[in-house]
Design a protein that fits this description.
- The complex is a heterodimer of chains A (369) and B (328).
- Chain A is an alpha/beta fold and 369 residues long.
- Chain A has three domains: 125 residues, Rossmann fold (3-Layer(aba) Sandwich); 67 residues; 162 residues, Rossmann fold, CATH 3.40.50.
- In chain A, 53% of the residues lie in helices and 12% in strands.
- In chain A, strands 2-1-3-4 form a four-stranded parallel beta sheet, sandwiched between helices. Chain A has a four-stranded parallel beta sheet with strand order 6-5-7-8, with helices on both faces.
- In chain A, helix 4 links the parallel strand 3 and strand 4.
- The longest helix of chain A is centred in the middle third of the chain and has 28 residues.
- Chain B is α/β, with parallel strands linked by helices.
- Chain B has two domains: 157 residues, 3-Layer(aba) Sandwich (Rossmann fold), CATH 3.40.50; 145 residues, Rossmann fold (3-Layer(aba) Sandwich).
- Chain B contains 13 helices and ten strands.
- In chain B, the strands form three sheets. Chain B has a four-stranded parallel beta sheet with strand order 2-1-3-5, covered by helices on one side. Chain B has a four-stranded parallel beta sheet with strand order 8-7-9-10, with helices on both faces.
- In chain B, helix 6 crosses helix 7 and helix 11 packs parallel to helix 12.
- Chain B is globular, with a radius of gyration of 20 Å.
- Classes of the chains: A alpha/beta (369), B alpha/beta (328).
- At the A-B interface, helix 4 and helix 14 of A face helix 4, helix 5 and helix 12 of B.
Chain lengths: 369, 328
């Protein structure tokens, strides 16, 4: 059985583990990115590479040490660097003496034959295409429930009565999803998980600030990469709305672009008319949408040296002024100290709160006019 | 009164200025250039641009700022692709938007999209749009375009013969006639390739005069513009082609030079914070391990103004190459 690994991205590994297992592979589950991952990543990656490349580099290295032979990852059509990750990782890993193969899944819309060929490589059990389809459906269902459960925690955390309760229950209920296998079980576990979360005692009268989170997909989805920004904000009494979930992204790149993404791209048009790769255009578009929906603020998360997000940040200057919405940008790098970020978040939430109570609040001056 | 059109002298300037020069001259537009990069220019750019941007973008911000009061229009085309296969870096694609939203009170920007993937005659159509923005006659625009295209071809042919872009552009701006490098009689001791993007290698200030320093040492310098790539040496090197036009050229040039093996040293010039280069440099370094006979060095440039560091590294590299040659 080939030993297969894949990138660690939030809780999605639970679905991918099941899928690859069902196809007859031995899965080396990637470790949650930690200090050692980062050390490996920094040692073997180019200095100015973006954070996701370094984290993945570290993850792959760890997986290699655990005996992985094949890495499964996604591709891209550029001009964001992520489209070349697979190839560069392979070159570097081979150069340091790790004999490993990388299977890159490009968008099936653009490369259908390549897509099927890749599936064949990962199907040592020689399952029929029908059974492969069945496996994919099941893990897709799991992925959808994982996203839905996570989304629910975002709105529960700011109003929970006992601080930290949501995170605790969340850790418990996703294990239920992990154990579910058949389609029926997954649905049952998913529903039970959602119900369990809704049982958390809440304070409905609490004054909740709404903040949208935009930015690059990997740092948004991997909490250990963004220093748990969503949890931190939740505990500060903020309801966060994340613009990207893995299921939406997969839909955008496989079947048909979702309505939400289309609206976001439409909203970005006046400010950034061309696709610039990565999630640059979506970042700008979602910020405009959040402003229109009456959100109190937007936080942009981007890896250090991320090209599309740097462009987006410059453009967001204008968007923030025109739509009168506060935007805070974090460029995330190898630093793991959390205090700096927490201080900035607290200050931002304070500012947003003050702006909420006074419509004439001037962001630049820091006082009402 | 003639329309005054500002062209920041950075980024695409080193590739397309000879073409634009002819095009706008034919249209009867007065071209205003921001000139050579200077310390004040760079400082202004560093102050205004996003802190995380790469040095070339900061330089460009400085150039654009210096034209602010002097022109009626700023010419910052959105060049996406010119060869149907590769596109430019995301920062280039969003360049007009970055200038518009990153700087305040800028003159109107002509940001026509130039994308050869948009079908037949898309380049001509783009140039017609540019001309129309300046209120010119369509026929005149087409005529100017054809003439400028010819000029571009001539420029490229000169580059292939060994001329450097900065020499030719100087000539266009009233400098002396460019002379093709000829070394009859006293052949240069060494030939070095300086691989890097035109706006880094040929910008005298930001590269700390790297090319001229090498020339003073008696080294013949070739850059990516001078290399005629052969298709045969490129196949199978990378499973997926680089997305970015300049990076693709640089990496292919490196592979080509390593393969041909008639160069004395390769220097990769890269800018601090350059996204694509983080990958290009690693791949070049891995390739250089297979060719230990050709010394390879990578130099990163940033906002530093002291050039002693670069001079020292160049001298050390030169000495190393020299000693190696003498030992054989």
């Amino acid at each position: 059985m080939p030993k297969v690994t894949f990138p660690h991205m939030g809780e999605s590994w639970r679905a991918f583990k099941m899928l690859l297992n069902d196809l007859g592979n031995e899965v080396i589950v990637p470790e949650k990115p930690n200090k050692r991952t980062l050390d490996f990543g920094v040692r073997y990656s180019p200095e100015f590479a973006c954070l996701p490349l370094k984290i993945l580099m570290g993850s792959y290295m760890e997986a290699c040490l655990n005996g992985a032979e094949i890495i499964v990852t996604s591709g891209g059509s550029g001009p964001c660097r992520a489209g070349l990750y697979g190839q560069v990782h392979k070159k570097i890993l081979n150069a340091v003496g790790q004999d490993i193969d990388v299977i890159v899944f490009e968008s099936p819309r653009a490369h259908p034959i390549d897509f099927l060929r890749n599936i064949k490589k990962l199907n040592p059990g020689r399952l029929s295409y029908l059974s492969v389809y069945d496996c994919v459906t099941r893990s897709w269902e799991k992925l959808k429930y994982l996203d839905r459960v996570e989304k629910l925690t975002h709105s529960l955390r700011p109003i929970e009565l006992e601080k930290g309760n949501t995170s605790k229950i969340y850790q418990k209920v996703i294990k239920w999803l992990d154990d579910a296998h058949s389609l029926e079980e997954i649905k049952r576990a998913g529903k039970a998980a959602l119900e369990e979360l809704l049982l958390i005692p809440r304070d409905l009268g609490r004054n909740v600030v709404k903040i949208g989170i935009v930015g690059e997909i990997f740092v948004l989805l991997e909490p250990s990469c963004n220093l748990d920004v969503e949890e931190t904000l939740g505990h500060l009494g903020v309801e966060v709305h994340r613009s990207i979930f893995l299921t939406d992204w997969t839909r955008d790149n496989s079947n048909r672009t979702t309505q939400e993404t289309l609206t976001a791209l439409e909203a970005a048009k006046p400010y950034l008319p061309t696709p610039i790769g990565g999630h640059g255009q979506e970042t700008v578009g979602h910020t405009v949408l959040y402003a229109n929906k009456g959100y109190d603020g937007v936080i942009q998360l981007a890896p250090f040296t991320c090209i599309p997000e740097i462009v987006a940040k410059t453009v967001l200057n204008g968007v923030s002024k025109i739509h009168n919405i506060p935007v805070l940008t974090f460029f995330l790098d190898e630093q793991t100290g959390k205090a700096g970020m927490v201080t900035r978040l607290e200050a931002f939430v304070d500012l947003v709160n003050r702006k909420r109570t006074n419509d004439n609040y001037d962001l630049k001056l820091g006082m009402a006019t | 009164m003639k329309i005054r059109l500002g062209i920041p002298s950075s980024l695409f300037y080193y590739v397309y200025y000879p073409m634009w020069h002819v095009f706008f001259e034919e249209l009867g537009v007065e071209i205003v250039l921001s000139g050579q990069t200077t310390k004040t220019l760079l400082d202004k750019g560093v102050k205004e641009a996003v802190a995380d941007a790469c040095v070339p973008i900061k330089v460009y911000f400085g150039h654009a700022l210096s034209l602010k009061q002097k022109v009626d229009f700023l010419f910052i085309p959105r060049i996406i692709s010119v060869n149907n296969q590769t596109i430019y870096c995301p920062k280039f694609l969003g360049l007009p938007d970055m200038i518009r939203h990153g700087l305040s009170d800028m003159p109107p920007i002509i940001d026509v999209e130039i994308d050869s993937r948009k079908g037949w005659f898309s380049l001509l159509k783009a140039y017609i749009k540019i001309g129309r923005r300046l209120n010119k006659n369509k026929l005149r625009i087409i005529f100017a375009y054809l003439k400028s295209k010819k000029a571009h071809k001539y420029y490229l042919s000169l580059l292939k013969k060994g001329l450097h872009p900065s020499q030719y552009i100087e000539h266009l701006n009233g400098g002396m006639e460019p002379v093709l490098p000829s070394y009859d009689g006293n052949k240069p001791d060494f030939v070095f390739a300086v691989l890097g993007y035109p706006y880094e290698v040929h910008d005298y200030y930001i590269s700390s005069g790297l090319v001229s320093k090498l020339k003073e040492m008696g080294v013949k310098v070739i850059t990516i513009e001078n290399i005629a790539l052969k298709k045969s040496s490129l196949s199978g090197k990378l499973e997926k082609r680089m997305f970015w036009t300049f990076s693709d050229t640089v990496l292919n040039s490196a592979y080509y030079l390593f393969e041909e093996n008639n160069i004395d040293g390769i220097i990769h010039l890269t800018a601090f914070g350059c996204g694509p280069d983080s990958m290009v440099d690693t791949l070049m370094e891995i390739a250089s391990r297979d060719h230990p006979e050709i010394p390879y060095m990578s130099i990163t440039i940033d906002e530093h103004t002291g050039d002693a560091g670069i001079a020292t590294r160049l001298e050390a590299f030169y000495d190393m190459v020299k000693r190696k040659k003498e030992a054989i």
